[in-house]
Each structure stands twice: as C-alpha cells, then as structure tokens.
Amino acid sequence: MEKPKNIFITDKESNIQIGKDIISNLISSLTGNMFSFSLGLMLLNITNSPLSFGLEMIIMPLVNLLFVVPIGNIVDSVAHKKIIISSLLFRLLALFILSATIGFFKDDYLFIPITIFVTINTICSNFNSTAYSASIHEVVNQSHIQKLSSFTQAANSLSAIIAPPLGMTLYSLLGFKWMIFLEIFASLISFAIVLSMHFHYPPRKTQFNSIPKENTRLTSQIKKFSSGLKYIHKQKLIMEIITIGVFVNFIFTSLTIGMPYIILSNLHLGNGPISLLESGSSLGMLFGSLIIGIIPDKLSMKTKLVYSLIPTILSFICLGLILAYVKGYLAITILGTLLMVILGFSVIRLNVTTQVFLQKSVPIDLLGRVMSSITTINTSVMPIGTLIFTFMFAHIHEGAWILILNGIIMLAYSLWRMTKI
Fold first, then answer.
1. Domain of 55: which CATH number?
2. How does pLDDT run across 284-300, given as a tens digit for each residue?
3. Which residue, of 163, 181, 198, 289, is most buried by count of CB atoms within 10 Å of its CB?
4. What is the pLDDT of residues 320-355, one digit of tens each?
5. CA angle, corner 89, sides to 56 and 151, nearest 5?
6. Where would I find the Major facilitator superfamily (MFS) profile domain in this sequence (predicted)?
7. HSE of 260 in the Cβ direction (CA atoms, 13 Å)?
C-alpha cells in the first residue's frame, strides 16, 4: 500500500491553501459554535429541559456507531472534495428546512425538528471531518501538514473562546430565527472557499469518481471496512494510541462533568469560576495550536506522546487537589484557570501530534476507514463515562477526590502503556 505523497504541491501553494483553510474554519467554527449555543439557549428558555445542551452528546455517539462503516468506505472511495462539498450542501439544505418548519412546533415539540436537524448535521459533520482528515496530504505538501493541522485547531480554539458570549449577545438581540440565517450565510462563505481550494489527487485517485458496484452490498461494505480494522490491528503504535486514547477519554468525562458540579454544588462558588476555567482551557488550546504550527517537527512519536500526555494528567490531578484543599473564590479561580490553560495546551498538542502521525503514516486508500474507526471508538466511551461519573458525583460529596484518584489511575496506566511502545 502506498504512503501519502505530496510531490505536486509547492510551498507557496501550500501556504495559500493553509490561509484559505484557516479562514474557512474560523468562519464555520465560530458561527457553528454560536448557532449551537443559541440553539441550546432557545430550547432551555422554551422547554426548561436539562437535555437542551446535551442533545448532541447523545446523538453524536449513536450516529458515529451507525455510520462508521459507510463513512469510512465512502471517504476511501470518492474524491474527498466531492464529499466535503456534498456534506456542506446537505447541511445548508437542512438549515433552510429548519428555518421554514421550526415555527410550526411549540414547547416540547420543538425537540422534533431540532433532533432531526442535529442528526443530519452530525452525519454531515462526520463525513466532512473524516474526508478533511483524509485529504490533508492532498491540500498541502508533507512539510506543511503539521502547520495546517495546528492552525486549524487554533481557529477552532479561538472560536470556542469567542462564540459563547457573542452567540448569547446576538441571540438576545436578534432571536433564534436570525441565528439560522446567519449560519446559512456563513456556510455559504465557507462553501465558496472550499470550492476555490485545489485538491491534488495521485493518479490512482481517478477511481474515486464513484463507489464500485461490488461495494454496494452490505456484506461487501463490511468486508471492505474490515480491511481498515485489520490494518489498525497490525500497527502496534496505532493500537497503543487508541488504547491510551479510549482510557483517557473515558476518564476525562469525569472532568467535563465534575469540574462544574464541584464548583457549583460542592463549593457553592457560582457560575463565574466555571466560565473562566472553561475559557482557560480554550486559551491553552489556542496557544498550543499556534506554537505547534511554528516549532519544527523533529521529535519521535513516543517523545511527543510523553511530553503531551504527562502534563495533561498532572494538571488534571493538580486541579483536583486545588478543588479539594484551596479555599476562597479568587484563589480557586486564578489557580484553576492557570491549570486549565496548561491542560488545554497539552491536550491540543496531543491531538495534533496524533492527527499528524496518522495523516503521514497511514496509506492513502485506508485513511478514511482508519480515521472513522478511531473517531467512533473514542467517542463511544463518552456516554458510558457520562452515566458512571454523573452517578458518582451525585452520591459522593467530596467530588474533587474523584478527579484526584482518576488522575492518579490515568497516570499509572499511561506510563505502563508507554513502556509497550
């Protein structure tokens, strides 16, 4: 199987493509986050349901599981630019339909059109992100892959910082219907930018014009997808990355659930520290993405994993210690925010390192199936972790000790797995 090659793409064209990608991602992620935030606010205001902000967390793992086979196969069988354009068009169509029909639903019945839209949007996003991950080597040359991945993450992190306050302001001023129109307008701009980008396909990519007929049957689809799983199974480093990633993602759900719960319910400090700690994480991700895009890529994969994973886990443990022992609103807010900056920095370094490694090492004709499989495996543990840790935090008053013990377990497990690489 052939490794990814970029012999057609110059440094100048790579930099132009990176600029277009950054602009497209900044626009789409900013308005997308604003739209999601305003959608949650709208549902919460009208239905008063705690599910308002958790609908996507339920739908996303289910969609990933149901569509993992077709997404992986299609991404490896169809030209990536066609998939990205098609997913953007279907999402635009879903937005138009939502704007035309949402007025017919009242109160709890609003969950009907919103659930349908979120499902379609998640499917489109999965196709888009998987095709994008598999196509990076077709957009820039080998030496620019890390820069593109890191700057894309930087755009997403910047959007995560700006989107909540901006989305809340615009939603209060304009209402949800105009937020839909804003998202449609932004999606059209991103669509135009993607159309202007040049995807360089190796000669054998000409087979991507359509899905082969023999793969239209379910059994053939599964057989084709299983070849991607067999490849993953044979690659020891990828298997170790997945094993560590699944465990870390599972443990990290305790932070996502526990940090706000401990601050609000155990320490009674209000919403202020929660928003600042969340902003600290996004700020760390932004700094990390920018720095990774500048520094040279010379370290071994194992060294990068160690340098990224250990600070992440240590900041996780230290945050638990601060929530357990430090007293005072100001002290917890300042120290907690600083630790979340470090944690965000380390997490984004870990994510970019893994993404770049896969994009550079996995054969071209397997990238879609490999990326789709890894995404599904990682997200599949989120609902399980959410249920388990929600129950634990509800019944254990000293919730900070859950974070501390989880961090220690995660540290011991990760160090043990590192010895296997």
1. 1.20.1250.20
2. 888 887 787 676 666 77
3. 289
4. 999 999 888 899 989 999 999 999 898 888 888 887
5. 70
6. 238-421
7. 11
